[in-house]
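TA notes, week 10

Several of you asked for a full example with nothing omitted. So below is the full record: structure tokens for the whole chain, then the designed sequence directly under it. When grading your own attempts, check the secondary structure regions first.
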């Protein structure tokens, strides 16, 4: 449809068939189906160009509401593009655009002056008359569309009607695009914050599932598994109240803050208490349910605290699964709650724990109690991947999920199930702590005697330190650590691929003596391609002295 067909002589009679036809063609130009394929940015520009020509105005501007600060932000403009480039913001209720938004009705200014506009911007650019209409979605203001002229102008009712039609089109397009962008951003954000790969923890099998709601978008469901320098393992599952980008953003912040507070030490109730204080002070509108569980390094005991989250399911070998009796304290972000409580349970070898969000057990057609019963009937003390698959098949099945679903299953392995430990670390000082931590956890998981654990930590630590200090130059390299059971012994091998350098400084080179004293057998092989240190130590007996 060409513009030449749409523009008529100003002042055409409003009560004639020609006027009705002209009015119809003007409306059609801003509801043209050809505009449907445009994205929001192009659509806004095209509509503003058409509005300028149809209404014979010099400027056209769209301002969208930033609800977080209740300000109108200049988003698109024609004829006065500087309002966008300068980031003009108008508080709700203030000035011309603010008044349009606050009153939710058209506003006409026949002569612009300092009494009716907030900023001198329009006066400085010679704008004389303004017409503005609200952008409304279901009666809620999302912005303002206004036009202006460089010469005095008396806008008619037809002008107001046409501009309101354009505003309705702009509102629908903008809302649709915002929802699309928010959904995409929320999905990307949540996926980036959920663990891409669960940690490999000697002594534990871990598996997880996450499925977003079928109706699109995401909520604030998340899970996390991480270790602390003390050797404790933290397991977290939570659900932020709300949906979309805002909930995903809150989830990301809670996840990061919780990790930081866990590093400070304390039991789960203390960690959640710190998180609660932070949320109530800095994010008073936020609320989330949360379950924090902390395994002792041996995995023999688990400490839990619940902030209004459903209790985990425990399955022991050969026994029906049960819900753990964990006191449910107030959700994070709810003021005035009582002191948080922690519960300690014993986790024998072979036991499986299942953590989940309420989307798994709650639905419109199923009560919470029925959902919990079905969950307990689906959980057994078996391989975690199979358990997760069975849970999803029985509780989700073929039906679309009405809410996000997250589950996390952990099973403590028997010592006979635990495979070798393989580490490849950069030959840098900070790697020594991680090596020591992994070796301690693996030895505890396979049931090594306390003296064996202590001796091998010294022996492997010395071999690794030697590789870091003596095997490589400034270019660096790697240290490989391999532990395996060769009953009744533990065989530890530490490898590097560098060239051995003599000890530097005085009183050095005693590592070999320490390694020999802490092992039943020690072999060190130097070659042009690197060094192998092989340490053998009895699993359950003290080394001979």
């Amino acid at each position: 449809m060409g513009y030449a067909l749409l523009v008529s002589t100003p002042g055409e009679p409003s009560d004639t068939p020609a006027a009705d036809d002209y009015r119809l063609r003007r409306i059609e130009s801003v509801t043209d189906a050809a505009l449907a394929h445009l994205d929001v940015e192009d659509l806004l520009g095209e509509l503003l160009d058409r509005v300028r020509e149809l209404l014979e105005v010099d400027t056209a501007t769209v301002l969208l509401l930033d609800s977080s600060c209740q300000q109108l932000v200049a988003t698109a403009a024609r004829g006065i593009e500087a309002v966008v480039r300068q980031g003009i913001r108008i508080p709700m209720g203030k000035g011309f655009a603010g008044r349009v938004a606050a009153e939710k009705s058209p506003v006409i200014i026949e002569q612009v002056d300092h009494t009716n506009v907030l900023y001198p911007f329009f006066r400085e650019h010679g704008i004389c008359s303004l017409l503005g209409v609200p952008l409304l979605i279901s009666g809620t203001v999302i912005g303002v569309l206004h036009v202006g002229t460089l010469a005095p102008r008396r806008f008619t009712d037809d002008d107001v009607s046409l501009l309101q039609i354009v505003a309705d089109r702009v509102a629908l397009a903008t809302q649709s695009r915002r929802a699309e962008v928010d959904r995409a951003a929320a999905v990307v954000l949540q996926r980036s914050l959920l663990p891409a790969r669960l940690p490999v923890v000697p002594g534990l099998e871990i598996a997880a599932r996450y499925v977003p709601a079928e109706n699109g978008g995401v909520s604030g469901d998340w899970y996390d598994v991480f270790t602390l320098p003390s050797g404790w393992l933290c397991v977290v599952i939570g659900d932020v109240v709300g949906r979309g980008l805002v909930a995903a953003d809150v989830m990301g912040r809670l996840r990061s803050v919780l990790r930081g507070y866990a590093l400070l030490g304390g039991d789960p109730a203390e960690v959640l208490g710190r998180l609660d204080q932070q949320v109530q002070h800095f994010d008073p509108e936020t609320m989330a349910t949360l379950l924090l569980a902390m395994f002792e390094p041996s995995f023999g005991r688990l400490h839990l605290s619940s902030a209004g989250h459903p209790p985990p399911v425990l399955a022991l070998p050969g026994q029906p699964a049960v819900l753990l009796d964990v006191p449910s304290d107030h959700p994070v972000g709810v003021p005035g709650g009582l002191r948080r409580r922690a519960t300690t349970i014993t986790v024998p070898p072979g036991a499986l724990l299942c953590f989940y969000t309420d989307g798994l057990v709650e639905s419109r057609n199923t009560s919470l109690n029925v959902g919990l019963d079905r969950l307990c009937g689906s959980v057994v003390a078996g391989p975690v991947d199979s358990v997760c698959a069975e849970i999803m098949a029985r509780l989700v099945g073929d039906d679309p999920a009405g809410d996000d679903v997250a589950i996390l299953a952990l099973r403590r392995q028997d010592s006979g199930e635990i495979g070798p430990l393989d580490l490849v670390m950069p030959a840098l000082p900070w790697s020594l702590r991680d090596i020591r931590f992994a070796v301690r956890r693996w030895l505890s998981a396979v049931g090594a005697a306390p003296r064996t654990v202590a001796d091998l930590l010294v022996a492997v630590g010395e071999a690794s330190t030697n590789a870091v200090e003596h095997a490589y130059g400034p270019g660096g390299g790697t240290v490989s650590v391999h532990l395996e059971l060769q009953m009744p012994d533990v065989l530890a091998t530490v490898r590097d691929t560098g060239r051995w350098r003599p000890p530097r400084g005085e009183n050095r080179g005693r590592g070999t003596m320490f390694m020999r004293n802490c092992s039943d057998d020690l072999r060190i092989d130097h070659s042009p391609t690197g060094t192998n240190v092989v340490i053998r130590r009895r699993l359950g007996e003290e080394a001979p002295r």
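The CA atoms of residues 16 and 38 lie 35 Å apart. Use that as a sanity check on your answer.
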